[in-house]
Amino acid sequence: MRTLLRSLLSIALIVWLGAEIFFPFVAATTFRTLAPDTHTAGTIVGSLLRLLHHIGMVSGMIALAMLALAPLWGLSKPRVVLASMCLVVLMLAATVYSQYGIIPAMERDRIAAGGAINAVPETHPARVHFNKLHKRSEQVEGLVILLGLAAVVLIANAEACKPH
Q: Where are the domains of the chain?
């Protein structure tokens, strides 16, 4: 049972962080490939970002469940997993904020701009706000990666310090 718990925890974090780290490369490749048609590229990347968030939310819930079960199965003390759980909760909060706060606001800006954000001048209020939200989205995704890496380090440290 211990191996199962450790494996599910590791897989959940690997899938989430792997997707988060890989996503910018996918986005850049999509925009480079569809260079003249940024609207289509943005639509594809937006869909992929929504999928990334769903992967993160499922993975985060699995990771939280496994961390919560760790003390019950004698894998670690509650105090040891608390910091990791807090980091995963922050990762989930950032992901939920991006999915249900930032993305819908960006979509409203795109619609206000007439459907294609790049079709309006850079000074158009909808485009200015869209660009601000885009930057915030990138920062939030970066934060999720940093929090995830910190959680992995804490979990690895707890595992290394555990008496056998």
A: 2-161
